[in-house]
Write a structure and sequence with these properties.
Layout (H helix, E strand, L loop, with lengths): L5 H22 L7 H8 L2 H10 L7 H23 L1
Length: 85
């Protein structure tokens, strides 16, 4: 990886994580396997893909962005559960 790609990669990964925090928070209030629940899980994916392509990263970075998106979903859900305790 070249040094000039560090900032775009950080932007991509932070966007993947940050955009899924509120979605995970909202998902936690939805019943599992409903249309709303599925939508909240998947709505960020097209934007993450578009940003990945726009920033010039190939498909090798999909696992990293997926990890950040899942982490954002889980942490957002955990924040909501802790708030309701």
């Amino acid at each position: 990886m070249q040094p000039d790609q560090i900032l775009p990669l950080a932007i991509l990964l932070l966007f993947s994580f940050g955009s899924n925090l509120p979605l995970g928070y909202l998902r936690e209030a939805s019943r599992k396997f409903t249309l709303r629940w599925v939508f909240l899980i998947h709505v960020s994916i097209p934007f993450i893909i578009a940003l990945r392509i726009l920033l010039g990263f190939n498909w090798h970075w999909i696992p990293s962005t997926l990890f950040c998106a899942v982490a954002g979903q889980l942490i957002g859900g955990r924040i909501r559960r802790r708030k309701l305790e």
